[in-house]
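Researcher: Sequence recovery benchmark, item below. Answer with residues only.
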């Protein structure tokens, strides 16, 4: 049986989005984030949602994988929606009332706006790691931070640490899922009532999870030392990332279009 792809893990495919340089995609993600926070109504977010859907379609990333990151922010979405929709003795006409609490119409629209923006932000930014290999992501980060080396900033080491941290997110999720299944098969209960009991129930999961993570980190450090990794000094690459004219065109036009879209809508 094929193992499920965890959130943030690279999904190889032959698509125009995968062919773009990592720096181009980083710039577009930054512009998309700024554009989302410039929008002030649901119409703008609807247009942004259509753009995200088109990118997911072109990238050939399955929707179940692209939307997997929203599961981690489900609680945040519920709190955001409730914080804006619920009113205490509202002066306006309420949609649903339960004692002094009521769901206000304008508040509900505002809550949907902020929750939808969080969903678009998660899906849009996750496409960067889903369509970019860890090696290309490391090279892109290192290139962007290279001017800081004049200030003795370890750009190569920081880029490597960030990439390893991103790579360990799906690995940690898969490891936690395996431990949960194993503990459940041994009779562990994780659905017991009460936060204290649930916290105690996850103790047998967290201990082996952290032990496995430290063991994996030690194995990774040993493997990097065996391959004579000594940082960015004298490091060579099998494939040098080069910004082509198409990458520059997509970056400039995409950034301009996204910022303009955020200002207009």
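Model:
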């Amino acid at each position: 049986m094929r193992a499920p792809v965890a959130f943030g893990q690279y999904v190889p495919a032959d698509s125009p989005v995968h062919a773009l340089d990592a720096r181009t995609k980083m710039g577009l993600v930054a512009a998309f984030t700024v554009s989302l926070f410039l929008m002030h109504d649901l119409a703008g977010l609807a247009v942004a949602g259509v753009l995200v859907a088109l990118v997911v379609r072109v990238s050939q990333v399955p929707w179940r994988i692209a939307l997997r990151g929203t599961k981690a922010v489900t609680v945040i979405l519920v709190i955001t929606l409730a914080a804006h929709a619920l009113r205490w003795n509202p002066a306006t006409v309420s949609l649903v009332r339960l004692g002094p609490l009521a769901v206000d119409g304008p508040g509900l629209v505002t809550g949907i706006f902020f929750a939808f923006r969080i969903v678009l932000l998660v899906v849009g930014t996750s496409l960067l790691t889903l369509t970019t290999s860890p090696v290309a992501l490391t090279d892109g980060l290192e290139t962007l931070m290279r001017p800081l080396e004049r200030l003795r900033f370890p750009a190569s080491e920081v880029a490597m640490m960030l990439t390893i941290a991103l790579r360990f997110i799906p690995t940690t999720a898969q490891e936690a899922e395996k431990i949960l299944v194993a503990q459940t098969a041994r009779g562990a209960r994780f659905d017991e009532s009460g936060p204290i009991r649930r916290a105690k129930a996850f103790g047998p999961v967290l201990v082996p999870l952290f032990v496995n993570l430290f063991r994996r980190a030690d194995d990774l450090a040993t493997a990097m030392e065996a391959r004579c990794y000594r940082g960015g000094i004298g490091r060579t690459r099998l494939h040098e990332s080069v910004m082509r004219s198409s990458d520059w065109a997509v970056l400039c036009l995409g950034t301009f279009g996204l910022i303009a879209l955020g200002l207009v809508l």
